[in-house]
Amino acid sequence: MPFSSRNGKDFTVEVVETLYRQCGERLAILDLGAGSGTYPRLFAQSALVRARCEWWGVEVWEPYVDRFGLRALYDTLLVADIRDHAGALAPLPQRHFDLAIVGDVLEHIEVAEATALFRWLAGFCAHLLLSIPIKHYPQGEVDGNPYERHVVDDWSHARVLAWLDGEVRSAGAPCWSCADCRCYRDVGVYVLANARAARAALSSSASA
């Protein structure tokens, strides 16, 4: 669905506000799989107001753009598939992003495609926040949107950690390290720091 579980969102706000305090300047945030615009809406309600962030969004399903008013939520919105690294998304690596948010996305693509995505993001993103269902969660098309189908519906906390340490590292992206993670009843939130591209070291928000 284009909406996201509330679980883990308070932790997400803590992480981004910690990153902002450490960077001390406007954050460039790339939201992959915008859906209903969950993340810019979330931060609009926090102390981290929109004026402190430059929001870039990527959404594959064009009907969501008008349905959820996405162009009003993002400074730049790309209607594109997050796997189209050589096509519509080719200009993105020319920029630097302080944070890439991959929220409720990986379950919609093949594991090999997720691995390629993380390898690609390692080239121009300093931090990555992954939010993903960590339980058996089958889902088909929603309101005619084929991209809502869950291709991999059995992610777990152990599988996420093994994938990060295994396939992602072996694919040439060993720079990603898990700085913090939180597991909730149905959602895992993972904060990854990029040793190669980071402008600021992100410590655990719990100790901030």
TrEMBL record:
Source organism: Plasticicumulans lactativorans
InterPro entries: Methyltransf_11, SAM-dependent_MTases_sf
Organism lineage: Bacteria, Pseudomonadati, Pseudomonadota, Gammaproteobacteria, Candidatus Competibacteraceae
Molecular functions per Gene Ontology: S-adenosylmethionine-dependent methyltransferase activity
Record-given protein name: Methyltransferase type 11 domain-containing protein
Listed transmembrane segments: none
Domain Methyltransferase type: 30-112
